[in-house]
Write a structure and sequence with these properties.
The chain is of the alpha+beta class and about 625 residues long. It has 2 domains: about 210 residues, Beta-galactosidase, Chain A, domain 5 (Distorted Sandwich); about 350 residues, Glycosyltransferase, CATH 1.50.10. It is about 35% helix and about 20% strand. The strands form 6 sheets. It has an 8-stranded antiparallel sheet. Strands 4, 5, 10, 14, 15 and 16 form a 6-stranded antiparallel sheet that branches. It comes from Ectobacillus funiculus.
Length: about 625
């Protein structure tokens, strides 16, 4: 099944240029098909930086020869205003897999095509709107771009200005220029009595009206809706005027800038067209997850918007490096590590708010230090710049020393929640000596040793290698039963994350591979829809015994190591078959049949890149 973006209201297709981030949505709260800019963020990609009112921005249209309105929300209440079918979403795509998002939809004979993009190096967002007829007959049409603002504090000609906070201003207009009116949307578009301008500090709908001619078989000329943000009113107005100057060339210029960026991507070889699109979209999503300062964050998923998970950010960082975007990866690495704060026990907190930069985690995990060592090593090994090691040596040595000091009598890392934060006493379960935590720590120590030797820290290198060996011995003693690697010392249940230690983090011996893979397929594969669960017994408020994209990719990679290419691609294809039409993959599938976490740049979209690189042999070269 393919999912449209937004069928779960937490999901959005993101558009960003690093300065601003927009959310695009294809389903309303009551699951009507719509084409909506759900939200726009500036200056931080955080929920507190939202510029639009909750209704966002959308398009209404009226073909003057027809009785049916293109009206996704059923706003127009004319006598014959809503005769006919509902709006249908025809296609959604990132054009050429890059940063311009296109939606084609129709109602009756009216077809509406929107393209949305953030022009490079500007605090701006542009949406172009074009209309044609399904039957290719000429007509005239009225296009109504609608935007729900949090407030309107000033109007300058046909530019409307909203102030959200002391350093958040938004300027909105359309091109060709049109008088904007505020008030009741239905009255505004049907010629009812409204006000031309209303000074308001309350949420306010703003409606523009632009007549357009539709020739035979062609779309109308584009109507451009422009949003520009700034830390001051003057900055927002300058961003708006600068954007308007090159408005007709902006889409092509944006695509060209993305093409330049994509050319820096590693040459993975020839892929089938479908996989080539997933490859490009996933690389695009990685770039879009980077804020102006380089910090990679979660961008498409509402509850976690504005959070920096060290694990997820390092996954994005390392994937950028593996895909050849070294400059972005180095900047993102430094930005991510700049958030680090020590817990009372000396480890680092694993989750932070992007605005306050304060920890906001809700579980206890000890894998952060091992992941930090891996992330630094992966970027350094590909950037080939020893300055990275000198700069980050305090973090490298602190992380490695924490691992060595925080093993108990078992030889394993102290009990924690492992890789999955929804595990532990807050859900009625005790922390365990998780295999993931000890294994990623062991892998991190081997990389710390390599980095230490490079900058002549030989004494540390020896200690790190010894610690890694001891952790592996402890895993073999306590966490492996009849060749099956279990979740922890305390449980023989399975954890899908252990697949990675046969593939991307190859530290487990091959003799564990056969039985472990068989057990995962038998006990973690969803019996109805396929795909791999993340834990054998783990539930959340929505029901978690459903396949996850990341673990499904990971098992497929382990199957490639095993030499079973056919089985591996069965799991790879399971993920692709559950993607949205525009090429974004869900984090998981809920038990209610909804996809959660579409547009996740870490496990989901990074999983596309990493698995394709792994299947083509690139991972072996770097590791």
């Amino acid at each position: 099944m393919h999912y449209f973006i937004g069928k779960n209201q937490d999901n959005h297709a993101p558009i960003s240029n690093g300065n601003v981030l927009a959310w695009l949505q294809q389903y309303s709260a009551d699951c009507r098909p719509v084409d909506k800019i759900s939200q726009l963020f500036f200056p931080n990609f955080d929920l507190s930086s939202a510029l639009l009112d909750t209704h966002g921005s959308y398009v209404l249209a009226k073909d003057q020869n027809e009785k049916v309105w293109y009206d996704p929300y059923g706003i127009v209440q004319e006598k014959f205003g809503q005769v006919g079918e509902i709006v249908s979403i025809n296609t959604t795509q990132y054009i050429n897999g890059s940063g311009v998002y296109e939606v084609v939809s129709h109602k009756g004979n009216t077809v509406v095509k929107t393209k949305t993009w953030a022009p490079p190096h500007r605090n701006a967002l542009i949406r172009s709107i074009q209309v044609k007829t399904l039957r290719n007959n000429p007509t005239t049409v009225s296009i109504f771009p609608v935007v729900h603002l949090q407030n309107i504090v000033q109007r300058i000609d046909n530019i409307f200005i909203s102030r959200i906070s002391e350093n958040q201003w938004l300027a909105v207009t359309v091109s060709p220029s049109s008088i904007g009116i505020t008030g009741d949307v239905a009255k505004a578009v049907t010629g009812g009595q409204i006000s031309i301008f209303e000074h308001s500090l309350l949420p306010t709908p703003l409606i523009f009206s632009i007549p357009q001619t539709i020739p035979n078989e062609h779309y109308s000329k584009p109507v451009y809706q422009v949003f520009a943000a700034g830390a001051t009113k003057d900055e927002a107005l300058k961003a708006l005027h600068d954007t308007l100057v090159t408005i007709e060339q902006s889409e092509q210029h944006t695509l060209q800038e993305w093409e330049i960026w994509h050319r820096r991507t590693i040459n993975i070889g020839t892929l089938p067209p479908e996989l080539e699109y997933y490859w490009r979209v996933s690389n695009t999503l990685l770039k879009m997850s980077l804020q102006k300062d380089g910090t990679p964050i979660l961008i498409g998923f509402k509850p976690y918007q504005g959070n920096v998970w060290i694990r997820d950010s390092l996954w994005i960082v390392s994937t950028l490096a593996l895909a050849g975007h070294i400059k972005d990866a180095v900047k993102a690495l430094y930005a991510t590590l700049s958030y680090l704060m020590e817990r009372p026990d000396g480890n680092y907190y694993f989750a932070y708010n992007v605005v306050t930069r304060l920890p906001n985690e809700h579980a206890f995990e000890n894998d952060t230090t091992g992941l930090i060592l891996y992330g630094i090593w992966q970027v350094w090994s590909l950037a080939k710049n020893n300055a990275i090691l000198h700069d980050l040596w305090p973090i490298i040595s602190h992380s490695a020393d924490w691992i060595l000091r925080n093993r108990d009598f078992t030889g394993l890392i102290l009990p924690d929640a492992g890789i999955w934060e929804t595990f532990g006493p807050h859900l009625g379960e005790s922390f365990e000596h998780m295999t993931w935590t000890s294994a990623i720590s062991a892998f991190g120590l081997t990389k710390a040793a390599e980095m230490a030797e490079t900058i002549q820290k030989t004494e540390g290198a020896q200690r790190f290698r010894e610690g890694s060996h001891e952790l592996l011995q402890a895993i073999a003693k306590h966490n492996v039963d009849n060749g099956i690697v279990s979740r922890s010392m305390e449980s023989t249940l399975l954890d899908a994350s252990i697949s990675l230690f046969f593939s991307e983090f190859p530290i487990f011996p091959q003799e564990w591979l056969e039985q472990t893979v068989k057990a995962i397929q038998k006990r973690l594969e969803d019996p109805f829809i396929g795909g791999i669960w993340r834990h054998e017994s783990l539930t959340t408020e929505e029901g978690d015994l459903k396949p996850w994209t990341g673990p499904t990719f990971w098992l497929a990679e382990a199957l490639l190591v095993k030499g079973d290419v056919t089985q591996a691609w069965k799991y790879f294809n399971h993920n692709y078959q559950n993607s949205a039409f525009c090429g974004l993959l869900p984090e998981l599938l809920y038990s209610r049949g909804r996809a959660r976490g579409i547009g996740m740049p870490s496990y989901s979209q990074s999983g596309v890149i990493r698995s394709l690189l792994f299947s083509q042999g690139f991972f072996h070269r770097s590791i």
